[in-house]
Write a structure and sequence with these properties.
about 60 residues; about 0% strand; rod-shaped; mainly alpha; single chain
Length: about 60
């Protein structure tokens, strides 16, 4: 299948050369940075939109 996509040409095209020149470490680090920003935004939004927590009734120990 790859041979069909490349059209049996041994020389890579311009687009294929760009993909081969891509540094995978940089791509992974950028992806992690974007994911961490997305998580921080989501957590901050959920914290502010949640409102005040509802506390249950508290039993008071009244000494007589």
């Amino acid at each position: 299948m790859l041979e069909d996509l490349r059209n049996h040409d041994p020389l890579p095209s311009e687009e294929e050369r760009e993909w081969m020149a891509t540094d995978p470490v940089t791509v992974v680090l950028r992806g992690l940075a974007i994911a961490s920003v997305a998580v921080m935004v989501g957590l901050t939004a959920s914290y502010f939109l949640a409102g005040k927590p509802a506390f249950g009734d508290v039993a008071v120990n009244a000494q007589r």
